[in-house]
Amino acid sequence: TLRDVHFSHDGDRDVLRGVTATIDGGRTVAVVGATGAGKTSLLHLIAGLVAADSGSVTVPAAGSRIVFQEPFLLAGSVRENIALGIDVPADAIEVALAVAEAQFVYDLPAGLDTELGERGVGLSGGQRQRLALARALVRRPAVLLLDDTTSALDPTTEAKVLANLRAALSQTTVVAVASRPSTIALADDVLYLDNGQVVAHGRHDELMQSVPAYRQLIEAFEHDRAAMDAELAEPIDAGDRKSV
Ligand code: DCP
Ligand code: MG
User: Fold this and answer.
1) pLDDT tens sequence across 132-188
2) Could you tell me if the CB of 41 is within 6 A of ligand 1?
């Protein structure tokens, strides 16, 4: 729950201006807005990475996990990159990789022991995103925050990941910044942000009907994505291998 939250990065210009929203437990909410609208800032606030200047942010005690807009890899094995210092049972890693559609790791030269990062194996953007998601999943958060973290996947794989999340984490609240209309349409609710304010909060199809600015934004996204998805659709599997 966010109540009248104000936040600025520089103490000067408010990036979030009086944001009030309640996200019910177990739901999947898409955060939608133009670039610079404050989506990443909102997720960072919910994750507790930054503090509000005023207002309140309440999250369940079991905590939240964020998958960053730019997923990072450490120099270390696949396993270390997922565990990040905590003790994770092998079967939990297996489940997380399956939910994240990240089974490509088993095809790497040494599977889960393959060294990644600086002097190890490089991964494609979509592979990184899926590994970063698995990293968040093994921590079993009450709230999962995804900052456009399936955007580099082809639409089919992305839809699979979202369906997996829904099936595996029915208790988990998912707050996902999304820009692909087909993804947005899969969410239970949409939080539409413009210029640091929540302009609308409701079902995608309702907002399409009743909020013209939202409809225009979605149409612009559709236009942008069509070209990108055409590129992503075919070569992703071949790309998975080549990048190894
Ligand atoms: N901003 C800032 N300092 C930062 C990060 C952001 O001053 N360290 C500013 C830039 C934007 C505003 O805050 O004007 C909101 O930034 P967000 O990163 O929250 O915006 P989005 O995530 O919505 O944008 P994008 O879609 O590009 O990721
Ligand atoms: Mg952002």
Assistant:
1) 999 999 988 899 999 999 888 988 899 899 889 989 888 899 999 999 888 899 899
2) yes
Residue nearest to atom 17 of ligand 1 (CA): 38
The environment of the single-atom ion ligand 2, i.e. residues with CB closer than 5 A, is 39-40
Confidence of residue 238 (pLDDT cuts 50, 70, 90): very low
In this prediction the pTM is: 0.88
Q: What angle do CA 178, 180, 186 make, to 5 degrees?
A: 75
Whether 162 contacts 203, CB under 8 Å = no
Bridge pairing between strands 173-177 and 143-147: parallel
Least Cα distance to 73 among 112, 127, 137 occurs for 127
pLDDT at 10 over 70: yes
Q: Where are the alpha helices (DSSP H) in 117-189?
A: 125-137, 155-168, 181-184
Helices 155-168, 212-233: crossing angle, 10 deg rounding: 110
Q: Which helix (H) or strand (E) holds 242?
A: helix 236-242
8-state DSSP, 121: B
